[in-house]
Write a structure and sequence with these properties.
Blueprint: H1 10-16, H2 56-64, H3 73-81, E1 86-89, H4 96-107, E2 110-114, H5 118-130, E3 135-138, H6 144-155, E4 161-164, H7 172-178, E5 183-188, H8 211-214, E6 220-224, H9 229-238, E7 246-248, E8 256-262, H10 266-276, E9 280-284, H11 288-300, E10 305-308, H12 314-325, E11 331-334, E12 347-352, H13 359-366, E13 376-382, H14 386-397, H15 401-414, E14 426-428, H16 431-437, H17 442-454, E15 458-461, E16 468-472, H18 476-479, H19 486-498, E17 507-509, H20 511-518, H21 522-534, E18 538-541, E19 548-551, H22 569-587, H23 594-601, H24 614-623, H25 631-644, E20 651-653, H26 654-665, H27 669-682, E21 686-689, E22 692-695
């Protein structure tokens, strides 16, 4: 629920002038283009260290201190420096940011970085600034003057990296500035979001392709950690690649053991895993209440844990994440709101209380374990009859179209939009209050809202990026007459010292900055600011996650609403396919290595057995008592020879065949030599010729 005062927006209307499309909680779109022709605004940021570097290695060493690149990073960098459009497929922990930051420095000019998450923007900008590299991010948490300053700096060459959300392309002010920028590289992070066949399609990403007309000779670097072959092709088409060009790192993680465990008591199994595997851990759940319950149960048995989900205040989320990152807390129990952009190398176990609905989501979350290259575990817990529960998610994700049409009517009435009206209006939509008011089922309702968005009925924005804002209501001289306790005095003193303009307008700020300067816990800062706002000393708008809706068509009757196959039927089929792929990973009974099953979904067919997943471990246990002349190794020999000797004149060296069998099925060389001898003795079509095997 929002804690914003009902009339906080009046001062903004006074400043900008009221507009028909201006609603509480919203900022008007920037419309002043004069800043583009003005002199660049001075900046207090540290200048970029412009040490000339002639190679990517020198750049890497100069700014990051590393001597060499990770696998495929240099290949991607070379492709970009050669001016090629490039799609880099680097699984979680593969070091995506280096692949555009190094060439961005070497190319000069401005590197535009499109990314969907504001937290990731701010984190990467802070890291670049710490290296004295000029970088900025534009998002809705900034006021008009700050945005103008950042754009001026980009236009006049004072910024090397500009991070933006794809939605920013719809701003006329940004488009005007873009015409004057020397753009040297366009980066599309999380590029799978541009594909309607992807698991996380975001319509705003489709606008990025229009930049190709504006910058036809500027290379595009698209980056993602998870994409199927169909999605890879679709991304390159949507971004108008001049030539298809994919550089991919293997999805195979040799140090990560995938385990699926059936259990009647998941919490007992979680405790057992955490007691058996030391080190940091993440436990993923699908609902918020379950997160809090599991964290409390772990604390009861002496395992330090906190819970994390989108329903917590930003201050509390940041504080809990920091405690876990620093090692003050061992386990974080979270929904999928946690993890994006987290780079903690020593996570030893990721436990899924409930499996995600797609292999892509699972691979991302599981991949947060073992980034330091040491042995780590990804464990999925299954209860009885869980396969049926998975298939029920299809009905939750794609509710009946009649429900969707009725929900459209309900939303329009809730927002007080009459028939034939609403086009272009943009407003706060407190979806949690809406659901509670009408006693709607939460998950199908949210799914229906996303379908209505894709169908073009409106644009729904989560708006995770709304930073806190503060303005003084009380005059400066009146402050001295107050008798406040010490925490409030410290907070007011910090606001006055570090945030100029706070008496004339709303100023964006971070609660963590106040906490750092005052020495108070972040949660207490939040409480004290709320109290000061209630005393009419300040107007405080906490960081908000309240969504917004922009009406893109005039209201019609729900029964007349067109829901295209692309928005519903086709996406439902692909979702069903993902559910089946998840079930295949969890329940397949042919003794296939878990790692092989997972990476084959992403189009990688030549993955070796990992040797450490639960399937491989069970196979090793069986093979300790296995005879090379048994039916299974004989069948494996036959399959290998049929594949490798396709015609009558073909032959293969013995050592090459033994290596192939070891690579595909494990076991040692002596085992397969004995198996081959037994198989060839029975074969009428194959014979040994020295150290080669030939057809007779």
């Amino acid at each position: 629920m929002s804690t914003e005062p009902d009339n906080w927006f009046l001062s903004l209307e006074d400043r900008y002038g009221a507009e028909d499309t201006f609603y509480p909680g919203d900022f008007p779109e920037e419309e002043d283009f004069s800043g583009i022709d003005a002199e660049p605004t001075p900046t207090d940021e540290a200048p970029t260290r412009r040490k000339r570097t002639s190679t990517p290695e020198e750049t890497l060493k100069s700014y990051w201190g590393y001597d060499s690149f990770r696998d495929k990073q240099r290949d991607i960098i070379d492709s970009v420096l050669a001016g090629n459009d490039t799609l880099g497929l680097l699984p979680t922990g593969g070091g995506k940011s280096i692949t555009f930051q190094v060439p961005g420095i070497m190319l000069g000019g401005v590197t535009l970085v499109f990314t969907p998450l504001i937290a990731l923007m701010n984190d990467q900008v802070a890291q670049l600034k710490a290296k004295r590299i000029r970088a900025e991010a534009i998002h809705s948490g900034l006021d008009h003057f700050r945005i103008q300053r950042i754009l001026n700096n980009a236009v006049y060459g004072k910024s090397s990296f500009l991070y933006i959300a794809p939605e920013r392309l719809a701003s006329p002010y940004f488009q005007a500035a873009l015409q004057h920028m020397k753009v040297s590289l366009i980066v599309v992070d999380e590029c799978h979001c541009i594909s309607q066949w992807g698991y996380d399609f975001r319509p705003s990403y489709l606008n990025i392709g229009s930049l190709r007309k504006q910058f036809p000779n500027v290379p595009v670097l698209a980056l993602t950690a998870t994409a199927t072959p169909d999605v890879v092709e679709d991304v390159m088409d949507k971004l108008a690649f001049r030539k298809h060009n994919v550089i991919r790192k293997s999805f195979f993680r040799p140090n990560l053991a995938y385990v699926v465990r059936q259990t009647p008591s998941k919490i007992t199994e979680i405790a057992h895993i955490l007691q058996s595997v030391p080190g940091s851990a993440i436990v993923y759940c699908r609902d918020r209440e379950r997160c809090a319950v599991i964290a409390a149960q772990l604390k009861e048995i002496g395992i330090s844990a906190v819970y994390y989900h989108a329903g917590l205040s930003h201050a509390m989320r940041d504080e809990r994440q920091e405690c876990w990152m620093n090692g003050d807390v061992r386990v974080i129990v979270a929904t999928n709101a946690f993890g994006m952009g987290i780079d903690k190398p020593d996570v030893r176990s990721v436990i899924h209380f409930a499996m995600p609905s797609s292999p892509e989501d699972y691979f991302q979350e599981a991949g947060r374990a073992g980034r330091d290259g040491k042995r780590a575990y990804s464990v999925v817990l299954l209860g009885p009859h869980e396969a049926g529960v998975f298939r029920k998610r299809i009905a939750t994700e794609f509710p009946p179209q009649a429900f969707i049409r009725d929900l459209y009517d309900l939303i329009m009435s809730y927002l007080q939009i009459g028939y034939g009206e609403g086009l272009g209006r943009r407003m706060i939509f407190d979806v949690e209050t809406f659901i509670k008011t009408f006693k709607l089922p939460p998950l199908p309702t949210m799914s229906a809202i996303r379908i209505l968005d894709r169908a073009g009925a409106f644009q729904y924005e989560e708006r995770e990026d709304q930073t806190a804002r503060v303005a003084f209501v009380m005059e400066r001289q009146e402050l001295y007459k107050l008798h406040l306790d010490e925490p409030k005095e410290r907070i007011i003193d910090t606001l006055l010292r570090y945030f100029p303009g706070v008496f004339t307008r709303y100023v964006p700020f971070e609660e963590q900055r106040i906490a750092f300067e005052t020495g108070l816990p972040v949660e207490e800062v939040y409480q004290q600011l709320t109290t000061l706002s209630g005393m009419s000393v300040i107007r405080y708008i906490p960081r908000s996650t309240l969504p917004k809706i922009t009406i893109t068509t005039r209201r019609q009757r729900g029964r007349d609403l067109i829901i295209s196959d692309q928005a519903y039927s086709e996406r439902k089929k692909r979702f069903e396919a993902r559910i089946e792929a998840v079930l295949d990973f969890l329940y397949r009974s042919d003794h296939t290595c878990r790692a092989q099953t997972l990476v084959r979904y992403f189009g990688e067919d030549d993955c070796p057995e990992c040797g450490i997943c639960d399937v491989c471990a069970a196979k090793k246990k069986r093979q300790r008592h296995k005879d090379p002349s048994d039916r299974e190794p004989q069948a494996q020999c036959a399959s290998a020879l049929n594949k490798l000797l396709p015609d009558a004149n073909a032959s293969i060296e013995l050592n090459a065949l033994l290596l192939y069998l070891r690579h595909r099925h494990g076991e040692d060389k002596d085992f397969w030599l004995k198996a081959l001898e037994a198989y060839l003795q029975q074969s009428d079509t194959l014979r040994m010729d020295g150290f080669r095997i030939r057809r007779r």
